[in-house]
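Structure ticket #2291
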Amino acid sequence: MSTPGVSVSEAFRSLRTNTQYTLDGIESPVIAVTSSQRSEGKSTTSLNLAAAYAQEGRRTLLIDANLRNPVLHTAFGITNRTGLTQVLAEGTPIDTCTMHSGIDRLNLLTSGPTPYNPSELLASRRMDELLENARKKYEIVIIDTPSLLEVTDSQLIASKCDGILLVIRSGKVKQSAAVKAKELLIHVKANVLGFVLNGA
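Resolution: structure written out below.
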């Protein structure tokens, strides 16, 4: 992600600009972030991209849709007792589960407790309704998702979003894995916005 002579914050501002340009004309876009495998930096990318949008002055919602291995609540040092699981499984209003991140204009919807049926919840009509409601209240929605080659969750989410970013960690992922991840996204007709090379 970083380039010699360019700060990390500047790199994410550049990523924000590029996604804005790619999604030009879409009001309140929903962007998912994924990777082919774990530990490639997708959650860090999701968080920093959301912060970059919020710092630009946009009302931003960051959603942790990694229902199997959530991490965003630890990054912000907040509880994960309630979150996306309650919205999808119980129909709890999104505002009840959304928390302020500590960054101006950036709200966070944590994953909530791990459910027994994450894929079914993410594919549900309630997930569609959640995104519809989020578009009305926020100017940008960023979704952190599980890695593509482990579970189908990211494909399900990608099919509901305006675009998806694929994070690739330099020196960690084989080319065949990255290609397979892209094929999985194309299979569900996801709009692949581009690739984020991390750790270069």
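Closing remark: Confidence is low (pLDDT under 50) at residues 1-5.
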